[in-house]
Amino acid sequence: xxxxxxxxVLNVTGLDSTAATYLTVxxxxxxxxxxxxxxxxxxxxxxxxxxxxxGGVTRVRGLHMSTAxxxxxxxxxxxxxxxxxxxxxxxxxxAVLVAEEPLGVLLATELAAKLGGPDGLRLAELAxxxxxxxxxxxxxxxxxxxxxxxxSHGLDIGPAAPAGQSLIADVKLATVTAGGAFALAPPGxxxxxxxxxTWSPLAGNPLSGAPGPSGPRPRTGATSAI
Length: 226
Fold this sequence. Notes:
This protein has helices spanning 67-75, 109-115, 140-152, 169-177, and strands spanning 7-14, 21-27, 37-39, 45-52, 58-61, 82-84, 93-95, 101-102, 104-108, 130-131, 181-185, 197-200, 208-209, 212-216. By secondary structure, it is α+β, with helices and mostly antiparallel strands. The protein has two domains: 7-98, no CATH class; 101-209, Periplasmic binding protein-like II (D-Maltodextrin-Binding Protein, domain 2), CATH 3.40.190.10. The two termini are 29 Å apart.
């Protein structure tokens, strides 16, 4: 690269993610305020970017991590910004709410037609089905909140997912379409849906995911994507 180059034009593509995430491209010591490209699970998205060079160095990090893993990385200085499902405990990390998304359920299509009502599907109607959920170790507070809401509606969710097990979209859909189980998903879930599975809203919106950025207090250095 010529010594007098001050910026580069890049095409940044995100693909094959198992969850909604984003990529940020920036000089190593310049924290940008926006992402370069956002993409949902299973989606392929591209965007162009003009990136200033600082001493010939540009750093790109794209990571998908659980809330607990992000908290650990933020505390260890391995990550500067994360997108988490719960507020961190203590005073070392800070977080703000950026979005709320009412969660619905993924069900086998025939079962959804049988259980659903005009206002959506009521949680109590899912009694007797297993929940295809994430491990508690990934986001303990959010997991406990979901389980408490399930139990308040008479649901026994079955055995918990093993610690460290990833909730892969294809596995989630395969388990749901086999019958006897349900999974949670936001509206407009971008994963391609087979005819044998469908998304249904929950009546009354009893569950709401609330992701928000978290980082050390104060935040310094380069911004890393989750």
